[in-house]
Design a protein that fits this description.
This protein is an alpha/beta fold. It has helices at residues 80-87, 90-107, 162-178, 197-211, 219-228, 239-249, 256-266, 275-282; strands spanning 31-41, 52-61, 64-68, 114-121, 131-135, 140-147. The protein is 35% helix and 17% strand.
């Protein structure tokens, strides 16, 4: 299955290092609004029956509601506004929302009913992530951005160019749900319960971005991740076999079922009776 590119032919010069599609629009500063509770319900949940993600939004920028998740850890004593004023300067936050995120919604043609952004301090997840895009079956989507270097007065990433790579990649995960390549999945899973699925879906997503001249992770990086695993035993595929997998799927649309089929053939673990295994047993 070949998807038509939604992108124009205007591309940044190769190796330019600049984030494409930034507009020069001026945006009204953060608007403090009454905090609202939101609930996103997913078709595939977590073990124990959890299918709903609940969060609170506290501000609006460029028509997008923002959430600051500081309920745990050393920052839990701050209010959301104290947190933002210390770690997310208004000017940088405006630029991020209006120029690093919203243009990508249009470029990727994400037809969403609601869209939220959540900023999260680094969490000890055992690997963690710098971004996560999730979407429900009724087109409500959340972009989670976790920054690993919190410095007073500075919106910080370990590598500044990461923003231009992370945002389109995570929005492509949202597009997968909108295009029917994946059901709406709760944004967390244990390694033996399918957390490895994204290792495989990243081959399609980053390959697609690369083929359209857009920022994404390199093929060699994704191959190195597959070399690590997780594998159930020492009988992991050879480097040549993994190279063939990467070449076959680089930029080719991959459904969730295809990702699970491939992972099981490679020897990735999947516990029986976990939500993803239950979904897979009934998938066609």
């Amino acid at each position: 299955m070949k998807l038509q590119s939604p992108f124009s032919q205007t591309r940044p010069a190769p190796g330019s290092g600049r984030a494409p599609f930034r507009s020069k629009m001026r945006v009204k500063g953060p608007e403090q609004v009454k905090p609202l509770q939101h609930r996103l319900k997913f078709s595939v949940g977590l073990s124990g029956g959890r299918q709903t993600l609940q969060f609170e939004t506290q501000e609006t920028i460029a028509g997008t509601r923002n959430s600051y998740d500081i309920q745990d850890g050393d920052l839990s004593g701050l209010t959301s506004f104290e947190f933002r004023n210390r770690f997310l300067p208004t000017e940088e936050l405006e630029v991020f929302v209006s120029q690093d995120v919203l243009p990508w919604l249009r470029r990727l043609r994400l037809n969403l009913r609601e869209f939220f952004i959540q900023f999260v301090p680094e969490r000890p997840f055992g690997g963690g992530f710098l971004g996560r895009g999730v979407c429900t079956a009724n087109r409500r989507a959340l972009l989670v951005m976790e920054f690993t270097n919190w410095m007073p007065g500075h919106l910080a990433l370990e590598v500044p160019d990461d923003v231009s790579t992370i945002v389109p990649h995570e929005l492509m995960h949202i597009r997968d749900v909108l295009d029917g390549l994946s059901p709406a999945m709760y944004p967390a899973a244990l390694p033996a319960q399918g957390a490895w699925i994204d290792l495989l879906r990243h081959l399609w997503i980053d390959g697609y971005l690369e083929q359209n001249g857009l920022p994404g992770m390199k093929k060699a990086t994704r191959l190195a991740e597959l070399e690590v695993g997780p594998y159930q035993n020492a009988e992991k595929p050879s480097s040549k076999q993994l190279e063939n997998v990467v070449e076959e799927w680089w930029g080719n649309p991959m459904t969730l079922k295809q990702a699970i089929d491939l992972g099981l053939r490679l020897g990735f673990p999947l516990e029986s009776n976990c939500p993803i295994a239950d979904w897979y047993a009934n998938a066609r």
